Amino acid sequence: MGTSLTPEFWERFTILLVVAVAVTVVLTAALDALAERLPHHPGPGRRPRTGGRPSTAEGRVSRTRAEPPLLLHGPDVRR
Length: 79
Prior knowledge:
The chain contains one helix and no strands. It is mainly α.
C-alpha cells in the first residue's frame, strides 16, 4: 500500500524547489533595495545617534580603555 517516489515526483520537486529559491532571492533583493531607499527615522522614544564618541557619566569623553568586569563565579575563584 506504500507509494514510491517516482521520477516524475523528483522532477516536480526539483522544479518547485528551484522556483522557491529564486522567488526568495528576488524578494530579498527587492526588499533590501527598498529599505536602502527609505529614510531612517528613529522610533518613538529614541534619540538619534550623534555619531560622536561615547561619553562618561560626568559628560567628559573617556580617553582610556574600559576594563572588563571582574567575574566572580565558579568553584575556582581567586581574589
